[in-house]
User: Which sequence fits this backbone?
């Protein structure tokens, strides 16, 4: 076939080569065969095979950000043009939920930093999972309280946006909780997640936490 | 070679279609329409030159550099000088064409409406045009959506308890006086429509929830078709009315006749 | 670390069992073919719909008995109803834009060739990749269902402007269940496209072979990469718009429905929404979408022109930057769809200028394509013919954009056939020509057999001349004032002189549509009986030509290619052959 996994070339004869600058050039030390094991032009060191999970997570967060950017832009526009906007009272429970979610960010960070100590990771990881579930249940209760007070999606544009923003955030958080639950089970079976899993999951979790703070501030400041 | 000739033929036919004006604009009937047509023609000439040069060049390259015995391709990765030249050239040409043209838009949409403009309200609905003249008092009367009754002859929900409403004239057709500035106030009862009259070079969406003003002055008498230009439902293709441009005297008479009916 | 490497070694094993191999496969090549086949099915439906559309435009109210048999409800007694026409029009636009132009170049060819061209054995996230396809499939199933529900398919156009699309059955036929299915399908499509985009971006960034720097990527990869970024940033916005529209329809909210509406004498119970909000969200997605359809085509055409001109791409860096520039600018031009929508006239001027800026990188691309051909040794294969056709159509469809980006000129041309001609030329047939070029070029790699070149050329000639006959005269219809989306052209006097031209277009359309049978027959025949393809039939330089046709499950047999040079080293002086593969360590082209 062709020169696959070629030895470093020793001949670079006369012809001009495009883009021969930059890292990841031929001539770099030979690497073990494996996916993604090669360096690339972004200056990543070789030997970090799980980079794509970080990249993927960054890309995912960019996409999710656009979704919420669109929702909040719609919020601003809809509020700006309308004569029917009545601010929706935010139930006190929201603050409790917020505290729970912020706490879960701390616990997941703790778990992440304890990588290597499986028992400790399991403890903090389970705590995060429980806090995540509590937050979601808390948000459901918030919805019930609003509905109990006669405030529904259709009541007012502000209430509609409250349901949409909390709902859309909740759906994403549910994804995060699913990951937490999955790895909790694995931890309990003494099959701990890799460092990459810990890192990427906690990045997403912090992101959801930050997203929530953003949404809450947004709702508070643009009443 | 066949490809080159085909591309050239297509270029020629396309050019002839544009230059020959077999299917073309109707004669213009508004003050701004002349400028609009001139801007169109300027754009046509500029883009036409680009179009012809590119297609002829493409055909030439294919014919000239066709593979053949003994031919060797030129090993080159490009030329920065050429890149700079054509980047600058296209930027200059395109913006030089587009920027001055904005004044026509500004005249149409950003200029103050003259004091003496005749104001007419146009309300779109599935699938009809309602044209309202304010009557002698020059004021549009109050509208109440719950009074709307298409079959009862009150498509706009004109509230006759308002004195300003009593002399309002609601018609299915429109007439305007020649040479007088006109301001149309566009609104919709249900979905988005668009008011368009080809001869006047006028087109504007009617958006429910918004009152959108447009202005123009007619420069030629005639009877023109009003068409809906934004998909509004089943009978979109049938949403038609007429706009008649009359001399001032004829217009005054027309308005009087309509009021009496 | 060691354990992490292990988990992925599992990917190298080919799955056993028919279902895992061909249905729920995680192999990017199988998924690519699945996407391609989905697009092929969709394009046949879409073309079929356009035939019905053309029939009604040219001969409205004519009794065509076969239609009555085929569509007893849509064409009772063989005469098409306006609702049938508008439903066909809506579905034609939606299916073509989403399930053909977005799906074939990116999901199809991108999936198949991006990993191979960058020397990876699969996408970064194969399971996610499979999920993207099946969600797309579900979206297609949902939109197809709209044909068969009570009231039929929606009639609000592919842009689904509210309030028309938000009010339900009362505003017109098909706007009940049919419209709901439409929104659900588009929302699903958004989710699938977001997952796909995530995969493409990550794969391009992190899975490139050793030595394959960004500026050594084939331009195809640049096209897919930037397209994926556009998709990532645009589809989320459309998804949000879809969610809000569904809530307006189902939950009684008023995002897009203003207060005080009276439809058919019935008051609507909504307050305060804005139809323009939808337009802003939709076109924020919609304009990048145009480039999502065409950028992969641009990449493929650059690739193919270089191959068959036997020359390096002229101005590679300029080409890559032009793709990036077009992608970046595409996010600040959406307002040019809305000059007459009632938004601020000041913003119109801003959008007009940003839109003009798109013309510059587009012109750069055209100049560089011509530069690539200049001084080349052009081999007119079918793939090359289609690539050249693309360039021609791209110019023809591009220049008319310079009319529509000027709000003053747009006052006359907006929503006329001039617009229809413009966008069909550029995002319709130019993009389709990109797909055809890629198909004739890569078919042998994908299926191990060649498409028949003779019938390919016949297909090209009819299609090339045909599309010009169809879409060029549409500009004249627009200049004559013909509005879009009219079910019949009978009601207006000014339309009558245009009918003859409409009939000409329809006849051209029927011939061109019929010629696609040649393609389908060629495709099916060649799958089984085509000339067997060797590894590198076009004597091309990029990595996909260094693996068997078709490539094995993990593309490289467990090894990984190393890249030594740029992607288009053709006719290198002093080299042994007129091409030097990217993977050849020796610049004279000796592959050892």
Assistant:
């Amino acid at each position: 076939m062709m020169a696959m996994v070629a030895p470093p070339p020793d001949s670079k004869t006369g012809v001009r080569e495009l883009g021969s600058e930059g890292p990841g050039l031929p001539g770099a030390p030979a690497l073990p065969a494996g996916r993604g094991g090669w360096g690339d032009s972004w200056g990543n060191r070789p030997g970090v095979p799980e980079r794509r999970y970080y990249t993927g997570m960054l890309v995912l967060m960019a996409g999710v950000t656009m979704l919420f950017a669109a929702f909040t832009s719609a919020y601003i526009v809809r509020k700006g043009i309308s004569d029917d906007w009545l601010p929706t009272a935010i139930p006190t429970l929201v603050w409790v939920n917020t505290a729970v979610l912020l706490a879960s960010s701390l616990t997941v960070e703790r778990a992440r930093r304890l990588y290597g100590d499986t028992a400790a990771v399991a403890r903090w990881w389970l705590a995060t999972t429980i806090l995540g579930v509590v937050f979601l249940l808390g948000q459901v209760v918030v919805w019930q309280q609003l509905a109990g007070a006669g405030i529904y999606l259709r009541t007012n544009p502000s209430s509609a946006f409250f349901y949409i923003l909390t709902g859309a955030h909740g759906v994403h958080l549910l994804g995060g909780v699913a990951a937490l639950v999955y790895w909790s089970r694995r931890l309990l079976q003494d099959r701990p997640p890799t460092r990459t899993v810990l890192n990427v999951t906690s990045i997403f979790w912090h992101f959801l936490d930050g997203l929530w703070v953003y949404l809450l501030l947004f709702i508070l400041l643009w009443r | 070679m066949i490809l080159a000739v085909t591309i050239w033929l297509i270029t020629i036919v396309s050019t002839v279609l544009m230059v020959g004006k077999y299917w073309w604009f109707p004669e213009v009937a508004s003050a701004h329409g002349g400028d609009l047509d001139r801007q169109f023609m300027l754009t046509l000439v500029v883009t036409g030159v680009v179009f012809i040069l590119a297609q002829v060049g493409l055909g030439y390259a294919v014919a000239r550099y066709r593979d053949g015995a003994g031919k060797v391709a030129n090993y080159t990765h490009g030329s920065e000088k050429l890149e700079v030249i054509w980047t600058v050239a296209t930027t200059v040409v395109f913006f030089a064409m587009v920027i001055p043209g904005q004044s026509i838009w500004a005249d149409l949409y950003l200029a103050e409406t003259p004091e003496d403009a005749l104001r007419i309200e146009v309300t779109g609905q599935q699938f009809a045009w309602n044209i309202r003249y304010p009557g002698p008092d020059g004021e549009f009367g109050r509208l109440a959506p719950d009074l709307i009754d298409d079959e009862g002859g009150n498509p706009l929900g004109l509230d006759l308890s308002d004195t300003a409403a009593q002399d309002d004239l609601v018609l299915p057709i429109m007439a305007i006086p020649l040479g007088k500035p006109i301001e149309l106030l566009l609104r919709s009862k249900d979905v988005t429509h668009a008011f368009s009259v080809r001869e006047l070079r006028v087109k504007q969406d009617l958006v429910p929830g918004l009152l959108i003003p447009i202005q123009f002055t007619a420069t030629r008498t005639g009877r023109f078709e009003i068409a809906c230009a934004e998909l509004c439902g089943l009978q979109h293709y049938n949403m038609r009315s007429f706009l008649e441009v009359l001399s001032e005297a004829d217009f005054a008479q027309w308005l009087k006749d309509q009021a009496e009916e | 670390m060691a354990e992490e490497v292990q988990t992925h070694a599992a990917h190298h094993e080919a799955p056993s069992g028919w279902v895992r191999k061909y249905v729920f496969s995680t192999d990017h090549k199988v998924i690519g073919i699945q996407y391609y086949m989905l697009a092929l099915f969709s394009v046949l439906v879409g073309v079929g719909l356009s035939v019905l559309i053309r029939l009604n435009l040219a001969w409205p109210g004519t009794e065509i008995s076969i239609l009555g048999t085929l569509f007893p409800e849509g064409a009772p007694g063989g005469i098409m109803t306006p609702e049938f026409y508008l439903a066909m029009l809506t579905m034609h636009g939606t299916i073509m834009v989403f399930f053909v132009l977005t799906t074939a170049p990116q999901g199809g060819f991108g999936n198949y060739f991006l990993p191979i061209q960058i020397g990876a054995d699969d996408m970064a996230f194969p399971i996610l990749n499979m999920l993207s396809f099946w969600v797309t499939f579900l979206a297609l199933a949902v939109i197809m269902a709209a044909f068969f529900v009570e009231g039929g398919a929606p009639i609000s156009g592919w842009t689904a402007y509210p309030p028309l699309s938000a009010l339900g059955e009362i505003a017109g036929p098909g706007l009940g269940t049919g419209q709901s299915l439409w929104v659900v399908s588009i929302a699903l499509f958004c989710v699938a496209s977001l997952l796909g985009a995530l995969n493409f971006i990550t794969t391009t960034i992190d899975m490139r072979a050793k030595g394959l720097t960004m500026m050594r990527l084939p331009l195809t990869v640049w096209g897919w990469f930037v397209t994926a970024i556009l998709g990532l940033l645009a589809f989320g916005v459309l998804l949000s718009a879809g969610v809000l529209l569904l809530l307006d329809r189902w939950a009684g909210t008023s995002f897009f429905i203003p207060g005080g509406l009276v439809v058919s004498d019935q008051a609507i119970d909504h307050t305060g929404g804005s139809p323009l909000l939808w337009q802003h969200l939709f076109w924020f997605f919609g304009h990048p979408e145009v480039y999502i359809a065409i950028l992969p085509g641009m990449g493929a055409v650059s690739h193919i022109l270089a191959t068959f001109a036997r020359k390096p791409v002229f101005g590679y860096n300029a080409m890559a930057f032009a793709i990036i520039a077009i992608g970046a600018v595409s996010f600040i031009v959406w307002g040019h769809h809305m000059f007459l929508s009632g938004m601020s006239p000041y913003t119109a001027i801003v959008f007009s200028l940003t839109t003009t800026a798109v013309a510059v990188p587009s012109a750069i691309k055209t100049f560089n394509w011509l530069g690539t051909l200049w001084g080349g040794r052009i081999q007119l294969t079918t793939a090359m013919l289609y690539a050249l056709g693309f360039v021609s159509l791209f110019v023809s469809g591009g220049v008319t954009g310079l009319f529509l980006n000027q709000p003053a000129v747009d006052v006359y041309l907006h929503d006329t056939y001039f617009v229809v001609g413009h966008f069909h030329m550029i995002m319709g047939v130019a993009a389709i020509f990109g797909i055809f070029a890629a198909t004739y070029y890569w078919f042998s790699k994908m299926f191990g057999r060649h498409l028949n070149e003779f019938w390919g050329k016949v297909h090209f000639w009819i299609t090339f001349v045909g599309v010009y006959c169809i879409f060029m005269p549409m500009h004249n219809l627009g200049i004559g004032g013909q509005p879009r989306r009219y079910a019949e052209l009978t009601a207006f006097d000014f339309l009558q002189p245009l009918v003859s031209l409409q009939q000409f277009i329809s006849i051209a359309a029927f011939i061109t549509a019929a010629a696609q049978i040649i393609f389908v027959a060629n495709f099916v025949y060649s799958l089984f009986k085509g000339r067997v393809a060797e590894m590198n039939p076009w004597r091309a330089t990029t990595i996909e030509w260094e693996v068997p046709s078709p490539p094995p499950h993990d593309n490289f047999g467990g090894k990984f290619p190393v890249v030594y040079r740029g992607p288009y080293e053709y006719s290198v002086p002093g080299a042994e052959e007129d091409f030097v593969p990217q993977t050849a360590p020796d610049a004279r082209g000796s592959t050892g």
Q: What stands out?
A: The mean pLDDT of chain B is 94. Chain B touches chain C through 102 residues (CB under 8 Å). The domain at 118-260 of chain B is CATH 2.60.40.420 (Immunoglobulin-like). Chain B is about 40% helix and 25% strand.
